[in-house]
Design brief:
This protein has 118 residues and is mainly beta. The protein contains 1 helix and 8 strands; from the N terminus they run αββββββββ. The strands form 2 sheets. It has a 4-stranded antiparallel β-sheet, with no helix packed on it. A 4-stranded mixed β-sheet has the order 2-8-7-4, with no helix packed on it.
């Protein structure tokens, strides 16, 4: 009986442990995470490892003073989220994102990118 309980416990741990990898994680971004671009981009595009729920996923872009420079609500399709940008001057910008995957797990993060010469 103890052997059965032990085996069942291991199986349950394996099933519950697999859920930790089910979150939508950022897999790539344009402009690139921590990167520098010569010309100001017209939008930020984020790609994730899972499909996203459009109503609960968002992205905002701010300048070095914290003012928003994106054009509003993010466009979400499948595992990609993008937002348009206002005209950007040379400088550093921060992207703040929040993603709700189709399996109901939420992730969030931020990164910076630079426009123009350093």
């Amino acid at each position: 009986m103890r052997t059965r309980i032990f085996v069942l416990s291991l199986l349950l741990l394996g099933i519950s442990g697999g859920g930790a990898h089910a979150h939508a994680m950022l897999s790539s971004a344009s402009p690139p995470v921590g990167g520098s671009v010569g010309a100001a981009p017209r939008q930020v595009t984020l790609s994730f490892t899972q499909g996203l729920e459009p109503a609960f996923s968002s992205v905002q872009v701010t300048d070095s003073k914290g003012a928003r420079v994106d054009t509003g609500k993010a466009q979400v399709g499948g595992s990609t989220m993008s937002v348009g940008l206002k005209s950007l001057a040379p400088g550093t910008y921060k992207v703040h994102w929040r993603a709700l995957s189709v399996d109901t797990h939420t992730t969030q993060g931020s990164f910076s990118f630079h426009v123009g010469g350093q």
